[in-house]
Each structure stands twice: as C-alpha cells, then as structure tokens.
Amino acid sequence: MWGRRSIARAGLAIEALRPVPVRLRPTPPLFSRALHVSLSHSSRLRPRLPKPAATLVLSFPSIRHCSAEARMMASQDRETLPDVAKPVNYHVSLFDLQLGGSWEYKGALKIDLQVTRATSEIVLNSKEIEVHDAEILGKDGSRLAQASGITYDKQSERVSLAFPQNIEPADVVLSINFTGTMNNAMAGFYRSKYKPVGEASADTPKEGEFYYMLSTQFESCDARRAFPCFDEPNLKSTFDFEIEVPKGQTALSNMPVQSERDGSKPGLKFVTFEKTPVMSTYLLAWAVGDFEYVEAMTQRKYQGKSIPVRVYTTRGLKHQAQFALECAHRTVDYFSEVFEIEYPLPKADLLAVHEFAMGAMENWGLVTYRTTAVLFEEGKSDNRYKNRIAYVVAHELAHQWFGNLVTMDWWNELWLNEGFATWVGWLAVDHFYPEWNVWSQFVAEGVQQAFHLDSLRASHPIEVPVRNALEVDQIFDHISYLKGSSVIRMLSVHLGRETFLRGVADYLKSHAYGNATTNDLWSALSKASGEDVHSFMDPWIRKIGFPVVTVAEEPGQVSVSQNRFLSTGDVKPLEDETKWWIPLGIKSGPELATLDTRALTAKTDTVGGIGEGTLYKINKDLSGFYRTNYPPMHLAKLGQSLNLLSTEDKIGLLGDAAALAVSGEGTTPALLTLLEGFKDEQNYLVWSQISACLANLRSVFSQNEKAAEALKRFTLKLVSPASERIGWEFQPNEDYLVVQLRKLLISMACNAGHEGFVSEAKRRFDLWSTGKDASAIHTNLRSVIFSVNVSEGGRKEYDAVKEEYLQTDSVDGKEICLSALGRTKDATLVTDYLDFVFSDKVAIQDMHSGAVSLAANAKVRHLLWQYIKDNWTAVETRLSFNNVVFERFVRMGLSKFADHQISDDISAFFKEKDTAAYDRALVIVSDNIRTNASYKERDVALILEWLTAHGYA
C-alpha cells in the first residue's frame, strides 16, 4: 500500500528503551515535501489504528475451553486465531444494499473449512458486523450443527460461534448470515461522496448534493469489517464473490465478471465474479459505481493473449486517466520480465476513489488510488503529479508479485512488501523515464526522510515484533517503506542489480501463492550471489537506528569509526552496541576516479593510501544507509570540489552536514559555509536538498528575530543568481527537471523576500483574481503564486484562493489551494482557515494538508496548537472518522516547534486523554521538538556570530 499508515499505538519495547508504540500506507512518503502526502506508499503509505471495535464471536457452550485457548495464545509471540480450522474457499454474497439512509447491507457467507481437531467453538475476526445465525454443513449440504451461541469481543475484534457438540476433524462448510454497514470511515466496505462531472446515471446513490461510489479498503485488518473471516495474512484462501447492485451501476472485483442475473427486485442485478487465486483476506476487493474506463492491452502475450489493463473513474473523468494507463500497461510487462514470472491474473484494473485515506492499495487485480495519485490532466495539473502517478502506479503493480503472489508470513515482516515495492517502483520509473533522474530524487526525498525518523529514539527496527494484527498499523511508516527500500538499494548496489533481481526472481518462484519470511529472501539472494547475505544484512533489518561513520585523518591514512547516530547527539553505550556492515565506497584521487569498495565491519578501522591533502569522498552516490562526518577542513575541501561530485553525492553531503549540525557532531557554520558554495548549482534535486536545509534552519531559529532576518538575507543572496537566471517563462516541451527547478527557485526567492519576484507574483495573481487574464498563472506555478500572495496579502488574497478551492475542477487544485491558504500570517485568517479545514468543505483525507502548511508557517504555527486545545472536542470528533488522518494531523502539525515549554504543554494536554490512535505520533512529536529546542539553544549564538561576521546580520 502506498502512502499509508504511521505508527500509532503503544505496546512494543524497542531495543530495551522505553516502551515505544509502534504501529503509513505513505502518507505517502516520497512526495510529502512537495505534495504534503505522507507516503504510503504503496500501496500503503497509511496510518490508522481504529478504536476498539466489535469483534464477532459466535459462542458455543464451552466457555472454559475458549478461556484456555486464549491463555495459550497469550503466552505465544503472536495472538492469532485458534488453529482448529483453516479456510480453503470463501463464497461471499452481498445483497439488499441500502444505498442511502442506514447504508446497511445483508450478506450470506459460506466458508469451506478444514477442521483440524475436534472443537465446539469456531472463532473468526469480525468488526461492526451483526451475525444472525451460523451453521456447519457437510460437503453435501447436510446440516451438521447449528450455532447455539454468538458472542462478540470488541477489543480483539472477534466473533465466537459456539456449537452444542464437538465438530470432528473433516472438510466442512461454515454458513453465516450477517448484516454490515457501508461506512464513511474509508475502511472496510465504505462509501465515498463526490460531485459528478456532467450528469450521473439515474441509479447512482445520492444524498443531498453528493453522489456516492462504493469501494473497499481491507489492509491491514479491515476485511473483518465487511464480512466475518479469518483475517490473518498467512490464512490464505480462494474467494468467490457476488454482489447485488442497480442495473445502471458497474461492479468490479479482483477477477473478471463471470455472469450476471436478475436481482431480488426490478432494477437490480447480481454480478458474479470468477474465483480468485489463493490469497490473503486483505487483498480481496470490490467496488460499485457510475464508472467508465480507458483501456490498453499489454504488448506481451500471457498464455497466448494480451491482458486488458484498465483505469476506472466515475463518469466524466476518464480522460484524466490516460497517463496512469500509459504507465500501467507498460509496467505490467516490465515486471513480468524483471521477476521472470508472468502477471498471474487475467486482467489488471486501477480505480480512482474519491475518498481515500492512503495513497493507494494493491488489491490483486483491482488496485485502488486516491484521485491525485492516478488522475492527471495535461495543461491543468501540476507536472509534479506525473512523477507521483508513475511511481505510485509502479509501486502498487510491484505488489501484484511481491506481496500478493508471495505474501509476508506475518505483519512483523511488512517491510518485505513495502520496502521492496518502494525500491522496485522507482526502478520501473527510472526504466521508463530516465530523464527524471529518479534515483537522485529517491536520495533527496526517500533516504533523507528515512534518516530523519530513524535518527529519533522513537524509531523502531525495520522488522519489528507485532503481537497481534491490531498493532500492525503502527509499522506502516518511513522505516518500513523508506528505510526498507534504502537498505534494499544498498544491497542491490553491493550485489549488482542483475544478481539481486535474479535472487528476487528465485524467491518469488519458490514461494508463489504462499507466505515467506525475510530469511527466505536472504537465502535466495545468498544463493544467487554466493555471499552470506544473512550475516551482513540482519543487523540492518533487526536492529534499531543507523550509523554515522566518523573520519579522522592521520599521516598516510584515515581512520573510520561507526557509532549509532541520534539527532539529539547523546547516544548512550547501551544504544550503541550494534556493529553494522557498512560499504564504504571510497572515491579518491585528484579527480575522485579511484574506487575502494571495502566494507567497515568493526567499530573502527583504518584506510591506507590516502595521504594528507588527498581528496576523498566516502559513500559513493550515498548508496549506503549511513551519515558521514568529515573533519571540518575536508568538508570545506569537498565543498570546493563540487564539480567532481555526482548529484547523489552532493545531496548526501548537504544532508549529512545539516544532520550533524543538529546533533552537535558538526557545526552550523560549517553547514552555512558549505551551502555558500552551491550558488551556481543548476540541478533541481540538489536545490531541493538546499531548500530543505535552509527551511529547517529558518524554522528552528525563527523565534530569534535577528537570526531569522539574517538567515532570510543569507537565503536571498544564495538563491538570487540561480532564480534570476532561470526566470519565469516556461518553454514548450521543457525538461521535467527544469520545470521543477523554476518552480522551486521562484518559491525560494519569494520566501526570501526577493522584491522583483514577489512583485511579479503579485502582478500575475492580480490579473488572475480580477478576471483580466485567466491564464496569467501558469499551471505549474499555482502553488507558488497562491502561497506568496496569501502570505504577503490579507483578506482579499485569502478569499480569492479559498474561492478557487471551492470552485476548482482541477484534480490537484484542492490540495494546492488548501496548502496555500495555510501560509497566511494574519491571526484572524488562521482561525478562519482552521474552521474551514475542520468543516465539511474539506475532505477528511486532506485535513493533514492544513496541519502541514501551518506547521511550516513559523509566524503562526503556535495558533494551530492553541486552536487544537481550545476546540479539542470538535477536533477529536472530526479526526476520529479515520485514525490514519488523525495520526498524520498530530504528527505533521506539531513536530516543527523548537521550544521545550511547548513540548511540556503538549505532553500535559494529552496526559489524561485516550491517545491510542496517535500515541506513537506524540512520541515522535516530543522527540522532534526536543531535538529542535536543544539545537536552537546550543547554536543560536554560534550562528549569529557567523552570520554577523559574513555580513548577513
């Protein structure tokens, strides 16, 4: 899943530190800086921990037996369902859908079971489902037992079915009749509201001014919210599915339609789908709506014929699906070749869903997406979204093999799905769009975000214990997605991409239609490479954190040492016991042309042949997941040799210097000196890292007026030459990276107070807002020009952008406007903005964009915290609709402060509250604020001294 969940629940002790609740599909992960989506990716980029929900338990007389079973399970590492029965096939029939009002539906479920030992009780997962009756049937249809008791355990989300006598080991059928609800929480079987483009079909569900489509979101543990089931990833089964819908509506599921028949009433039809392959419950999916589609056929032949690839939208939007379609059908063929296994289903559907908490979800054969992750309209959409769509489409399609065909055995190995899909998603984008230089983008965005979270004490290992399925949402975060993919990139560079992919292909072939573990992947890669991958990769997966390699120069050699890196700079001996395998990748010589590929495997080592004055650069292309701390003089020397460095090297150099300044292992003056050398840089991705470094400096020191103004002048001087050189005007067929560079440099110049650029932004906004020239604002400059005018202006500019939010028909327009509105510096408008964000005018899935925008607005970010405190009941009520959004809002909205007093205030405020949905976020918030505050207090005098000495203060 992409863009998915963040950690949000207490209960796991990490590496003998204080208990850390560990629970993103993300918010996106790789686009959060530009698009404010916390990357989910995958498919999942999703943060969500629902409140304790109704577990359906069908209880039979033997309560004592049930308690013994529960005690036995509690003593094990995993709290799984009793192993008395295993599902073989589900037949799910949904009918009598109430398309309005109660939004209830009825279901008839038949599960082919293998009963493995005698039992008088069968326990399934169930949540917000009412079971009416249950019985055990023989394979011939004869009734063997009727449930005598049905009980629910809401906390563990289970239903227990009790029978009056033992059911003996045999192949039987469990038949259940139930009622469920199509909720509006973006989880389980749910409804999405939207306003159609043009006229919707007459039988499209409608309430008030909104129309509705229906779809599912089951990962990780919400299939149980749609029907009672054995909702664990290693309890795979086949599925037969049918649903009764209005005749004018389209029904979709994982497999093609097998048949249609008349429904129970005139105007209705039953749509029956072909049987699925063996798969986990979380991958089952269906959707109903007023859909249309665009289609392309694969170029490769599968069992002698091409496969149809379709992108479905609600009526009137299919033209915006063309770019995603272009990506999708080519990606299916590419992965079939790379994985050496043909795409295993007879069709591949992608569906745009109007309300979607994550970025996307990899349901086998029916991948679902939030609209901005799959729809793009040339001339009306920001080009940045093309990059996003290409990646998210590839990420989800990678899951069709890595996750769907072969599934992790248990949720502790979620990274197997998400880390790999993230890496191979970028591999596909690089294959189709090499001019985008996406591996540099990955280093600038993915690796740096992973570094940031993993440098906190609140981090967790890539592979982390998950006691029960309800804890899994805590690990859909940047560690599983971005650290996982960064470590895979490191390993693939070391083994060689061809060898690495050959091992992956062997892994998939060996475990097809089954479940696998990290050790299974390491075994396949060890066999392919002839190296003991287990020994050197296990610490990267099973230990918390990452190292900083510190370099000391000696006559004729350098010494290198490794220690765990913490952003607070106060790592304790107990936290620093891991010895990582670290590929050093040392480039040296006058042209940095000599490469030494040795690895650091001890705490310290020496590298000979590098004499005093020799130019060298460690961690070629930032392929290793670690920071490097150079002696100050050598860092300055590298800063004077930028022409010899790759894009990835420059990004890594900047990222390391900035992080080491924060931790106190480097200095802010050293960072500023390094930044000064980049004034002639022309690469967008390097500038994006420069921008990130400056934004963090200006944020941390924003409350010191003298430092804030000096840093603003520093930024202005640094960015002015590049911004003036690139100018405002876009050229036909201009390179994607040049388009992004122009947008970034104009934004940086305006935010630094460049009078000419601010004046031009205001001129164009005035032409657009007064209607004199509707084309005055280029599509790719909407975010910049709207933000500048809201920031520099007042009520008039704010209202113009707010009206654009309400009226826009651009698929990305609402995200862009919502972020721009949060740039206001007027306290009255901030209150208006927050009232707006918490109103029904803003979709719940987008509310975190408001938090992100205000958090980045140093002048007024304190008003966001004040608003939360003053309006807590309303805030909690609104955010509680979806805990993915709740966690995101708290984490992204409160992490930018640099004041110990505010940290204490946040802690005190939440002390007596039920924070189960976002308690992990609060730990991250606390760590971030403490880091920022300590950095500010330690370096404010130092930074002012340097800025004054260099004429900025």
UniProtKB/TrEMBL annotation:
Feature type site, description Transition state stabilizer: Y481
Enzyme type, top EC level: hydrolase
Ranges for domain ERAP1-like C-terminal: 615-930
Record-annotated Peptidase M1 membrane alanine aminopeptidase domain positions: 323-540
GO biological process: peptide catabolic process; proteolysis
Assigned protein family: Belongs to the peptidase M1 family.
Name of this protein: Aminopeptidase
